[in-house]
Amino acid sequence: MTSVPNQPPPLRRDRAGAIAGGVCSALGRRLGVDPLVFRVAFVAGTAAGGVGVLVYLLAWAAIPAEGARRWSPPSVPGSRESWQVAGGIGLLVLAALLLFREWDLWIGDALVWPVVLASAGGALIWRQSASAQAPPTNLAPRPLRLGGTALGRGALGVALVVCAGVVFLYLNDALRPARDVLLAVVAVVIVLTLILAPWWVRLARGLAEERGERIRSQERAELAAHLHDSVLQTLALMQRRADDPKVVAGLARRQERELRAWLNGRPAASGDGASFAAALQSAAAEVEEAHGVEIDVVAVGDCAVDQDAEAVLGAAREALVNAAKFAGGEPVSVYAEAGAQRIEVFVRDRGPGFDLAAVPEDRRGLRESIHGRMRRHGGEAVVHTGTDAGTEVELTLERRS
Amino acid sequence: MRSGGVSPRGFDPASLVAGLVVCGLGTLLLLDQLEVLRLSFGYIAPALLATIGAILLAAGLAGRR
Questions:
Q1: At what angle do helices B41-63 and B13-33 cross, to 10 degrees?
Q2: Between A92, A94, A99, which is nearest B57 by CB?
Q3: In angstroms, rounded to a whole number, what is the distance separating the alpha carbons of residues A291 and A236?
Q4: CA-to-CA distance for A344 and A31, rounded, in angstroms?
Q5: Percent of chain A with pLDDT over 70
Q6: To 5 degrees, how large is the angle CA A283–CA A285–CA A289?
Q7: Whole-number pLDDT of residue A266
Q8: What's the pLDDT score for residue A395?
Q9: Is B49 in contact with A95 (Cβ distance < 8 A)?
């Protein structure tokens, strides 16, 4: 097996990604750097006596235009290298600007530095808005982007532009009349910050603690639901089959395997990526085998099993167990519709039904394993039942991913 | 199984660039000390910035290959 060396693309002006002549885009592709870095450098060079325009025109004349065949960039490197390259180019541009200033190729501090800051900040804001508008796709080639979060880039861009405005006004003596007012505002802000800081810190800690408590509470509920659906159900089944030692031993072995797998963090049979329809069929088959009740499953559509789909599966399984236990041996039917946006499952039996209001508070099956589980994952469970009217459990979940 | 001795190191362009630019900066400072050149802060500051920038650029570009 031979490996293809990772060749850099040829230096060609890119008309598709061009804003002016495509020089920055060409340099960016060749060096694997965001073209914005070069655009900011050329703007800074232009502000410092017009050298940037001259260099750009020379580069435009020297670099040939791209033909019909397009090059696709290989891979996106990590953000550390991107920041190193951008920082290196920035320092080189800064060194060139200082040299131009030393050689008097300089319009003036009052104009050049604000332009440099504003162009860098504007480029960051522009990049942020462009990446927010672009639809995510795996097919389109991704150019190298500077690392860091989008919010951080946008905030840095805004700060640079504001800083550019303040520097421009300061260097042109426009801030002199407002200096006293500005000083008073800054003093008030500092005083308020010092006074309110303890409350802010306490508020932030309180929010973090509340969030942690909410997460722990959800984990406890998930744990209780899992134990109810697995261990408690198996124990109840073993009591009902106490007269058949072989069946009891088989149930105990299966429960032991499931519990060990769960404790060791191994995925269940319907783990992430599995088919939802297949997992539902498998759960129905398990309940059918354990309780000796006929279960008919009709599944329309399919989707991968993620955390949300896993919750629907758990709730459907619990509804199936309830139907098998209380339907008096009548067949149970399951109808499921699964798609990328929505999952619906209907579990129906023709048993005697029950009075919802009469369900005791300490029975967790319906309350936690079905209603609570669906609610925690943003879904909904509705039970249609009545005395001698059969029971239908309707599970609906709008998928988040 | 690895053999003993010094492990072979590949060519590192970043180190080469860093060495060259630091040598260049040192030469400039030496010429200034020997009064062949007369460097002011207005020249030394850009030279230092350019040195750091070139090293960063070379390290970043080399890290991708």
A1: 170
A2: A92
A3: 11
A4: 50
A5: 85
A6: 120
A7: 57
A8: 93
A9: yes
C-beta atoms of A85 and B60 within 8 A: yes
Is A88 within 8 Å of B53 when comparing Cβ atoms? yes
Question: Does residue A210 surpass a pLDDT of 80?
Answer: yes
Tell me the pLDDT band of A6, cut-offs 50, 70 and 90.
Answer: low
Nearest chain B residue to A144 by CA distance is B64
Q: Across the interface, which of A6, A84, A90 has its CB nearest the CB of B59?
A: A84
Contacting residues of B for A88, CB less than 8 Å apart: 52-60
* Nearest residue in chain A measured CA to CA from B56: A88
The C-alpha atoms of residue B58 and residue A37 are separated, in whole angstroms, by 16
What's residue A8's pLDDT? Answer: 66
Residue range A45-72, pLDDT digits in tens: 777 777 777 778 777 777 777 754 444 4
Report the predicted TM-score, pTM, of the whole model to 2 decimal places. 0.43
Q: Is A358 helix (H, G, I), strand (E, B) or coil?
A: helix
In chain B, residues 35-64 whose CB comes closer than 8 Å to chain A: 40, 42-43, 45-47, 49-50, 52-61, 63-64
C-beta atoms of B56 and A91 within 8 A: yes
User: Is B21 in CB contact (< 8 Å) with chain A?
Assistant: no
Give Cα separations from A243 to A73, A101, A237, A249, A291 (angstroms): 69, 97, 11, 11, 15
Q: Closest residue of A to B62, CA-based?
A: A81
Core vs surface per residue A76-85: b (16+ CB within 10 A) or e: ebeeebbebb
Summarize pLDDT for A327-351 with one digit per residue, the tens. 777 888 999 998 888 899 999 988 8
- Give the residue, A334 or A360, on which the prediction is more confident: A334
Please check the confidence at residue B2 and state whether its pLDDT lies above 50. Answer: no
